[in-house]
Amino acid sequence: MGRREMLRLSEKDEAPCLTGNPIDDCWKCDSDWASNRQRLADCAIGFGQNAKGGKGGQFYIVTDSSDEDPVNPKPGTLRHAVIQNEPLWIVFPSNMMIKLSQELIFNSFKTIDGRGADVHIVGGGCITLQYINNVIIHNIHIHHCHPSGNTFFFYLVFLTETNSFILWIFNIISAN
């Protein structure tokens, strides 16, 4: 269904769940979206439409908001999730404030899905996506970042001169 078709349906009140945003409309109209989270990967349009993130992979539940050891992160932390080699769909069971000690560097085929929780990533060098592909970051607040370690970058960093590609970043609130 195209964007214009969805808007027409919304105007007729035949689909009250529609927001006018085709990506949100794609998943919000499913009343059981939490049981079908990976459908989000099929909702992208435009540049990120081929990003699959962690679709087809296991779910990883972030249960620990700490970030004390970036070299050997503790299982259950966001840092531990994003460095794994296999595809993962990363979710949060509750609201969380993750204070990074250093930049968060990803491996490919990851989805950070903040739907259903109020998730904030703050401090450190924030997020760096370099030499990777197939990453989806959805519904996360990223703010109060600062350079850390040997990095010169902060906030959400895409290094386009590298081989990073097929990325979809949506519903992100970023501020300093």
Name the helicity range: 10-25%
Give the CATH superfamily. Single-stranded right-handed beta-helix, Pectin lyase-like
Gross geometry? globular
Q: Which class of secondary structure composition applies to the elements?
A: alpha/beta
CATH overall fold name: Pectate Lyase C-like
Largest sheet: 7 strands, parallel
Number of domains: 1
**Sequence of secondary-structure elements:** HHEHEEEEEEEEE
CATH architecture: 3 Solenoid
Alpha carbon gyration radius: 17 Å
Note the quaternary state here. single chain
Number of helices: 3
CATH class: Mainly Beta
Q: Which runs of at least 5 residues are low in confidence (pLDDT < 50)?
A: 10-14, 152-165
Estimate the strand proportion: 25-35%
From the N-terminal CA to the C-terminal CA, the straight-line distance is 37 Å
The count of β-strands is 10
Could you characterize the architecture of this molecule?
The chain has 176 residues and is an alpha/beta fold. It has a single domain, classed as Pectate Lyase C-like (3 Solenoid), CATH 2.160.20.10. Helix content is 12%, strand content 30%. It has three helices and ten strands; from the N terminus they run H-H-E-H-E-E-E-E-E-E-E-E-E. The chain has helices at 3-11, 22-28, 78-82, and strands at 58-61, 88-91, 96-100, 104-105, 110-113, 119-123, 127-129, 133-143, 156-158, 165-175. It is globular, with a radius of gyration of 17 Å. Residues 10-14 and 152-165 have low confidence and may be disordered.
